């Protein structure tokens, strides 16, 4: 059996992984093939990269704040 690309439909699942096909399939036998699954959540590598970037950014911000704070205290003491 040959399947035309135009015949393929993309559907999104609900939070339990179910797909609503529509009333045109009511009382009919339907065979479904999953061709591809995309996640809307970041994978572990993306999360690790984001965590490292946030950590680096926080360190840089803390250093900058430390310098600014020292300058402010020096101004107040002077």
Automatic annotation (TrEMBL):
Compositionally biased tracts (Acidic residues): 61-78
Highest rank taxon of the organism: Archaea
Region of interest (Disordered), residue spans: 53-78
Organism: Halalkaliarchaeum desulfuricum
Record's protein name: Uncharacterized protein
């Amino acid at each position: 059996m040959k399947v035309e690309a135009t015949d393929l439909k993309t559907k999104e699942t609900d939070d339990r992984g179910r797909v609503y096909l529509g009333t045109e399939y009511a009382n009919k036998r339907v065979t479904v093939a999953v061709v591809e699954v995309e996640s809307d959540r970041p994978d572990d590598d993306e999360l690790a990269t984001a965590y490292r970037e946030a950590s680096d950014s926080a360190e840089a911000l803390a250093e900058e704040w430390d310098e600014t704070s020292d300058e402010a205290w020096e101004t107040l003491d002077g």
